[in-house]
Amino acid sequence: MGHTIAARTPGVFYRRPSPDADPYVADGATVAEGDVIGLIEVMKTFREVKADAAGTIARWHVDNEDEVSIGQELVEIDP
Amino acid sequence: MSILVHDPGLETTVQDTGRFGHYAIGFPPSGALDSFAYHVGNALVGNAPGAAALEAVYLGPTLEFTADTVIAVTGADIPATLDGEVIPLWESVAVRAGQTLAFGQLAGGARPYVAVAGGIDVPEVYGSRSTYTLVGMGGFAGRGLAAGDELALGDDAVAPRAGRRVPDDAVPVHPEVAELRLLVGLHSYRLTPDSLERFTDTAWKVTPDANRVGYRYRGAELEFVPREQPFGAGSDPANVTDCGYPVGSVQVPGGVEPIVLLQDAVTGGGYATLGTVVSVDRDRLAQTKTGDRTRFVPVDLDEALAIRHDRTAQLERLRSDLS
């Protein structure tokens, strides 16, 4: 059973640090707990979304630049 | 006696009732956006009206208290814990030296308030302890809290004690669609009658651009009555010759995405004011978040004054019941 990372604030979700940069994490990449996996922009500030468990990026529930709500599932991580 | 900030949350600031008397020179008042939650928090912990408290948004801060005190968390519906034990909201709670207040995932509303017996003791700037982050003045060092900050506390609370509780029927609810009562004018004549109707018929969605400066909404497009551009006004059909903006006033640059100006906003400019959210309902607005829906409900001036009168009376009753 995978682990799901959820949004802690509402806002716009980004997978990249800037429009021309590579995504923080590629599909299928391995992440450690605390690794940045994206950004949420809200109130004109960008807040990093960090993995709260280690594993492999299995499935995204949101697309780059989607508006997300609090508690919304962002990505599944397989242990 | 102080508070140690372990995690500041998203944008946690020191706020009081606000910095008044300088609006005419372009100085917005700042102050707690949800005035009711702020005032009730102070009443719960035995503070005089006007003591400084903490306003957070979406994410609560993690705070350690260095001495025994009494606190109250009001405003948003968010799980709050002391050393991991859930504490009630809208109720005064005893804190022992060394205990840590933390928050879980927001369930409703947007802004929790933390009132502490004695208030947050930061210097007054132009008569207020409120933080105005855009120019970096007031509050704690003119900014939102950061990890490692230490906030001094006042010591003039009157008989603070745990167990004071706001009756359930006085605790605001956070509805699916927030209704904000609106005094229509000064420039509502600039909208076509259809568009004015559309403005009040639409359930507007709060965009990610929603903070202490203002809330921006999406949901419909509005049309202005064609006119000859007046002297001193810009070319956008939403432009008028510059005027003062009331706090809570609504403008619609370009006819898309209405903005409600709040306590940290610019005090004047050249956009038509379609109406002004009554001050009592700015509390409700402050508890809406990005993605929430909002409707504007027209009221006349008599109704607006009655709403304010009722709120003042309710606060007086609560203060006297809680003292």
From TrEMBL, chain A:
Residues 1-78 form the Lipoyl-binding domain. InterPro entries: AcCoA_biotinCC, Biotin_BS, Biotin_lipoyl, Single_hybrid_motif. The keyword NADP does not apply. Pathway: Lipid metabolism; fatty acid biosynthesis. Keywords: Biotin, Fatty acid biosynthesis, Fatty acid metabolism, Lipid biosynthesis, Lipid metabolism. This protein is a component of the acetyl coenzyme A carboxylase complex; first, biotin carboxylase catalyzes the carboxylation of the carrier protein and then the transcarboxylase transfers the carboxyl group to form malonyl-CoA. This is Biotin carboxyl carrier protein of acetyl-CoA carboxylase. It comes from Actinomycetospora termitidis.
Automatic annotation (TrEMBL), chain B:
This is Biotin-dependent carboxyltransferase family protein. It holds the Pfam family CT_A_B. NCBIfam families: urea_amlyse_rel (TIGR00724). Residues 24-314 form the Carboxyltransferase domain. SUPFAM superfamilies: Cyclophilin-like. Keywords: ATP-binding, Hydrolase, Nucleotide-binding. It comes from the Bacteria.
